[in-house]
């Protein structure tokens, strides 16, 4: 099969270009093989270009051809280009081979994905999109235009429209292809995800492909090994990501922000009671989260770049982002400011419980073996860091670079690494404690702690207003 469609056409599909249906539309047992090339402007997919309707089930789809699925303006997927107009979707038991490439040459529209370019909801009805037992081996990319957003190994973007309920459910999702983009919101599984409906979850998800941002030349962000950015827009309940794994490298470009070995930015919502939870998720196999030569990446973490929530977060007393039994074994995490072996920057009501990092950290300021910079309310308990910390300027700590929040608490946590270095405000456990409490925590390895300033110490560089309880 060889299909070529001009780049000026929209709604281009290898089987169906535009499919509008009522309830219970189903496509199953479809295989596309041999030589296959599909090219359109936008809403391009090897099965369906644009799908709209009440309910769609795509099952047992195999894309084993040699060729490409291309668009010139985004909304392109290995199976479906755009399905935001479908209330309920289930895509299951399908695979795309490495002999294919899924890409957009330039885009002003959000969404390039191994299976689906754009999901999400576009009606007032409750929408649930289910992705189950999917394997992508094809490379996925946006080749130009740094304003592009939403590139993922399985789904490019899945966004809840404000006031329109949307739930995302993903289980047994695997990506092996390289995911690359000049823009932000890039993830090995999902590039950009916005939720506002209880019942959302992801379980048993793995990325083994590299996240290549090395050509990025502008100040873009929200890039992660598994998820670029996830936001709980509204709605109560917990969106849990469990049993996740990333073994792909994160190759950063110049001036990228919010970059994590697992998730670039995790954003809870204290106003609605909506929470994010990451449990039993790991970054392993010597992943490297590093910046290009001369780059200025900020908010970089071996697991998560930035932990965030709504602007009213300071008024909330409830935890809305949770990390439990998670770890990172990244060889190196590097950037400029707010660099951490596990998390770069936490400005949320977050909990880190029984988490660990073996990452070596390199940065300019606010660098920590576990957490670069913690503000507002974060609780870290029973967690460890063991990598070396090298900071060009100030606020370097074996466990945390800077804490500045009266409700911050670190307890029963340890640093077991060999060295911490910086200019000033350098400590074996914490660089600078402005506000907050450290309790029952220790440095157990007698590391080399060095600096050129006056505030250098075996545990803290400077405690200017916090509390340290042995």
Task: List the SSEs and their pairings.
Layout: E1 10-13, E2 16-20, E3 25-32, E4 35-40, E5 42-45, E6 48-63, E7 66-71, E8 76-77, E9 80-96, E10 100-104, E11 112-113, E12 116-120, E13 127-136, E14 139-142, E15 149-152, E16 155-159, E17 166-175, E18 179-181, E19 184-187, E20 190-195, E21 201-207, E22 211-212, E23 221-224, E24 227-232, E25 237-246, E26 250-251, E27 257-260, E28 263-268, E29 274-279, E30 282-283, E31 288-290, E32 298-301, E33 304-309, E34 321-324, E35 327-328, E36 332-334, E37 337-340, E38 343-346, E39 350-353, E40 356-357, E41 360-363, E42 365-368, E43 371-375, E44 378-381, E45 384-385, E46 389-391, E47 396-397, E48 400-411, E49 414-415, E50 419-421, E51 426-427, E52 430-439, E53 442-443, E54 448-450, E55 456-457, E56 460-463, E57 467-469
Parallel strand pairs: 1-5, 2-6, 3-6, 4-7, 5-8, 6-9, 7-10, 8-11, 9-12, 9-13, 10-14, 11-15, 12-16, 13-17, 14-18, 15-19, 16-20, 17-21, 18-22, 19-23, 20-24, 21-25, 22-26, 23-27, 24-28, 25-29, 25-30, 26-31, 27-32, 28-33, 29-34, 30-35, 31-36, 32-37, 33-38, 34-39, 35-40, 36-41, 37-42, 38-43, ...
């Amino acid at each position: 099969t060889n299909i070529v469609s001009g780049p000026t056409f929209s709604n281009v599909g290898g089987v169906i270009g535009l499919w509008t249906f009522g309830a219970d539309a189903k496509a199953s047992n479809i295989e596309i093989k041999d030589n296959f090339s599909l090219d359109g402007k936008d809403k391009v997919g090897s099965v369906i270009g644009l799908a709209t309707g009440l309910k769609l089930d795509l099952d047992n789809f195999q894309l084993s051809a040699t060729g490409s699925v291309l668009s010139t303006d985004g909304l392109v997927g290995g199976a479906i280009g755009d399905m935001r107009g479908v209330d309920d979707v289930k895509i299951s038991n399908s695979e795309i081979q490495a002999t294919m490439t899924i890409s957009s040459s330039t885009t002003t529209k959000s969404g390039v994905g191994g299976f689906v370019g754009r999901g999400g909801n576009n009606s007032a009805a409750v929408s649930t999109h289910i992705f189950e037992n999917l394997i992508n081996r094809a490379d996925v990319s946006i080749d130009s235009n740094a304003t592009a957003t939403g590139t993922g190994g399985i789904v490019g973007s899945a966004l809840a429209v404000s006031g329109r309920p949307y739930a995302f459910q993903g289980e047994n999702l695997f990506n092996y292809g390289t995911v690359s983009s000049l823009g932000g919101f890039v993830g090995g599984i999902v590039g950009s995800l916005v939720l506002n409906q209880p019942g959302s979850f992801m379980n048993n998800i793995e990325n083994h492909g590299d996240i290549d941002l090395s050509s990025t030349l502008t100040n873009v962000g929200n890039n992660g090994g598994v998820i670029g950015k996830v936001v709980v827009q509204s709605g109560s309940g917990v969106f849990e990501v469990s049993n996740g794994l990333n073994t792909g490298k994160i190759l950063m470009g110049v001036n990228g922000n919010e970059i994590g070995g697992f998730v670039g930015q995790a954003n809870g919502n204290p106003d609605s009671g909506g929470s994010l939870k990451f449990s039993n998720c790991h970054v392993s196999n010597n992943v490297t989260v590093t910046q290009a030569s001369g780059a200025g990446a900020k908010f970089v973490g071996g697991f998560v770049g930035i932990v965030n929530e709504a602007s009213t977060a300071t008024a909330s007393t409830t935890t809305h982002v949770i990390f439990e039994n998670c770890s990172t074994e990244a060889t190196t995490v590097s950037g400029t400011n707010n660099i951490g072996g596990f998390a770069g920057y936490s400005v949320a009501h977050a909990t880190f419980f029984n988490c660990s990092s073996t990452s070596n950290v390199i940065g300019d300021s606010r660098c920590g073996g576990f957490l670069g910079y913690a503000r507002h309310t974060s609780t870290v308990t029973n967690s460890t860091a063991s990598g070396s910390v090298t900071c060009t300027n100030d606020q370097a700590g074996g466990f945390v670079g800077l804490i500045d929040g009266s409700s911050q608490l670190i307890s029963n946590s340890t640093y077991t690494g060999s060295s911490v270095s910086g200019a000033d405000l350098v400590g074996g456990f914490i660089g600078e404690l402005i506000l907050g409490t450290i309790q029952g925590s220790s440095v157990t390895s007698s590391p080399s702690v060095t600096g050129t300033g006056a505030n250098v110490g075996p545990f803290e560089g400077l405690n200017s207003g916090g509390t340290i309880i042995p």
